[in-house]
Specification:
Length: 321
């Protein structure tokens, strides 16, 4: 049985996340305490108590989701067996790198805080937005983006996330985004949902953030990943420090190729996907990509105890999927 660990990104946050893990596992408590000390403010309190507006501010959301996910990972560490593959969705790629031994927690925390800061600044300089399109295939949405780019050459619009068949997120400036949403409805989309964000993540509008972020990435010591990390931008495994650095910079302006990433892991023999972190967003996406695959979530005490109690080798018998 080959196991893949996957880690969620921004949008999976919720008030109270991590509190029960913090109260029940000293390994998790140590992670939250280290985060507070490293950042110089009580990130743990924002996770546990809010206010919600602070948790939802990208400069806080990114370190919050990262810390929560690493805390869950640490709660599993003592009895965790080695995974065959690791991947993270957007921000979750940083947690994946920690899990693979390529990035230290404190360094990763500083990076995601800086990533959030720079993305917020880029959004203020180049306002944009994102929208989820449900019920259209990727080729149709790609053509919509190409048509709008041809008609409005000064605009920016592209696919940001290939999340699952029939669920794709587009990203761009407000004018182009509005036209793309209208065109998607005209061409048969079941739903078009504007996302509650003021930035155009994974698009060229993040280029100013990427240029400055490269300096932050270059200042961090990365190690060789001891488990392959399937990269968002290429949907292929990376292990070497230099290719990891390139991925983290490219990821800011490139689409998240989640469908391809999951299918690559499936093709290499992955049979179980364990999502570690808040909510169950990736579990739903993975089941849409491959209906029969086995999945499990570890985002609270019950999830940790279920996995640690059964052991990965007994997952099929546990009925936890």
């Amino acid at each position: 049985m080959k196991v893949a660990l996957v880690f969620p990104g921004q949008g999976s946050q919720y008030l109270g996340m991590g509190k029960d893990i913090y109260e029940n596992y000293h390994e998790a408590r140590a992670i939250f305490d280290e985060a507070d000390e490293t950042l110089g403010f009580p990130l743990s309190k924002i996770c546990f108590e809010g206010p919600k507006e602070e948790l939802d501010d990208t400069i806080n959301t990114q370190p919050a989701v990262f810390t929560m996910s690493v805390a869950c990972l640490r709660a599993l560490e003592s009895k965790r067996e080695a995974a065959s593959f690791i991947a993270g969705h957007s921000l979750g790629e940083y947690t994946a790198l920690v899990a693979a031994g390529a990035l230290g927690f404190a360094d990763g925390l500083r990076l995601v805080r800086e990533r959030g800061r720079l993305m917020k600044l880029a959004g203020q300089k180049n306002p944009g937005g994102m929208a989820a399109i449900i019920g259209l295939d990727a080729e149709t949405i790609e053509r919509i983006c190409q048509e709008i780019s041809f008609r409005l050459p000064a605009s920016t619009i592209q696919i940001a996330n290939y999340n699952s068949p029939g669920q794709i997120v587009i990203s761009g400036d407000k004018g182009a985004l509005g036209k793309a949403m209208a065109m998607a409805k005209e061409r048969g989309a079941k739903r078009v949902i504007p996302l509650a964000v003021s930035i155009a993540a994974h698009s060229p509008l993040m280029r100013p953030a990427a240029e400055e972020f490269r300096r932050a990435v270059e200042a961090i010591p990365f190690s060789k990943a001891h488990i392959p990390v399937v990269a968002n931008a290429t949907a292929r495994p990376i292990t070497e420090p230099e290719e990891i650095k390139e991925e983290l910079v490219a990821q800011l302006t490139s689409p998240v190729r989640w469908v391809e990433s999951v299918r690559w892991m499936l093709a290499q023999g992955a049979t179980v996907f364990i999502e570690i972190g808040p909510k169950k967003v990736l579990t739903g996406l993975i089941r849409r990509i491959e209906r029969g695959v086995q999945t499990m979530n570890v985002g609270d005490v019950a999830g940790v105890e279920s996995l640690v109690g059964e052991g990965w080798g007994d997952l099929r018998k546990s009925g936890s999927f």
